[in-house]
Amino acid sequence: MVTGCAGFIGARVTEMLLEQGCEVIGVDNLNNAYDTRLKEWRLARLVAQPGFVFKQADIVDSGQLQDLEQSGDIEGVQGVVNLAARAGVRESVIDPWGYYDTNVTGTLNLLDVCRRHKIEKFVLASSSSLYGASAPIPFAEEAGTDAPLSPYSASKKAAEGLCHVYHHLHGVDISILRYFTVYGPAGRPEMSAFRFVQWIFEERPATIYGDGTQRRDFTYIDDIARGTVAALKPLGYEIINLGSNSPVDLKEFIALVERLVGKKAKCEYTPAHAADMDVTWADITKAKQLLDWQPQVPFTEGIERLVEWYQQNRDWAKEIATR
User: Fold this and answer.
1) What is d(CA 271, CA 209) in angstroms, rounded to the nearest whole number?
2) Catalytic residues
3) How many domains would you assign to the chain?
4) What is the CATH number of the domain that holds 6?
5) Of 35, 113, 184, 272, which one has the fewest beta carbons inside 10 Å?
6) 228: exposed, middle or buried (Cβ count in 10 Å: 0-12, 13-18, 19+)
7) What's the pTM?
């Protein structure tokens, strides 16, 4: 079962599982946290594939999950990949309650489904934002996470804690994956990759928080999905970074998009946001050791694929709200 199956990462993980011959129950509430046309585009690609069953449900609503249980849909499920989440650092400052509900209560509900149905494997999507501003660079999984900078990162830390409890008390095998700045075709529209491609293509003002020297460990969607599928193996209880281990500064990224699109960005600078980190940088030693995983798609190639996707879908992608 993949929750958040119509989301950016959830859809690609589901595709990869189906390609490997797995049967997948996809769960998503199809909310309007961002333009639903993106979710509909992703979901349409899934429902056409054999082995996929879609169930519209909200993981925060325990009654809706119980309906799934009573219908028998959960019988035979061997693993749960929880990719249903409210994501985004700045947005979480505006609605911390919504983030807590989905990321904490939703995770708890799913963990208890695993307990009741003796589902052996649970994978949680977590975030590099847990490392905050004081962790040594590059970020290793053993670094402290006690000083989150946003409600989003605090909610993910709470979800990680619940995972440890259910592993300790109930023996659920759990992989927690801390993702680093995921980008690629049909990505989330509030993320920098989608935003700047759209803004530069459409010659709209491009908002830069701070001076543009902040660095992000951009990681291509296919690499993230491949690592997520690999983490379904029995591991006991592990926290694992999935990142590129090669941060790129924002100005370098903008210059690449300008070159690929053939237009100059109309940059507008605004003060840095208090919830933003100056740099994200993944130590991926553990992922290599435990999952035999490392990123395969170079940054330039990944951005080329995103630009190509945008060109092919520009008639509606240009209308997606990015602010």
Assistant:
1) 5
2) 152
3) 1
4) 3.40.50.720
5) 272
6) buried
7) 0.96
Report the share of the chain in percent with pLDDT over 70: 100
253, two tokens: 């990224």
Write the CB contacts of 53 (distance below 8 Å, at least 6 apart in sequence): 23, 24, 25, 26, 73
Q: State how far the Cα of 148 lies from the Cα of 158, in Å rounded to an integer.
A: 11
Asked if pLDDT for residue 249 goes beyond 90, the answer is yes
Beta-sheet strands, E only, within the chain: 2-3, 24-28, 52-56, 79-82, 121-127, 173-179, 182-183, 205-209, 215-216, 219-220, 237-242, 248-249, 266-270
Structure-token pair, residue 208? 């830069």
In a domain, 201, yes or no: no
Q: Per-residue pLDDT tens for 9-38?
A: 999 999 999 999 999 999 999 999 999 999
Q: Are strands 248-249 and 215-216 parallel, antiparallel or unpaired?
A: antiparallel
257 within domain boundaries: no
Residue with tokens 């804690």: 161
Contact assessment for residue 174 and residue 163, using Cβ atoms and an 8 Å cutoff: yes
The C-alpha atoms of residue 69 and residue 127 are separated, in whole angstroms, by 29
Between helices 192-201 and 299-312, what is the axis angle to 10°? 50
DSSP-assigned beta bridge partners for residue 126: 178
Q: Tokens at residue 189, please?
A: 């529209």
Whether residue 275 lies inside any domain: the answer is no
| 6, pLDDT greater than 80 | yes
Burial label, 242 (beta-carbon count in 10 A; 0-12, 13-18, 19+): buried
81 contacts: CB under 8 Å, gap ≥ 6:
1, 2, 3, 10, 13, 123, 125, 228, 232
Q: Please check whether residue 172 is in contact with residue 166, taking contact to mean a CB–CB distance below 8 angstroms.
A: yes
Using the predicted structure, report yes or no on whether residue 274 has a pLDDT greater than 90.
Answer: no
Least confident residue range of 92-96, 123-127, 195-199: 92-96
Kindly tell me the burial class for residue 133, based on how many C-beta atoms sit within 10 Å of its own C-beta (0-12, 13-18, 19 or more): exposed
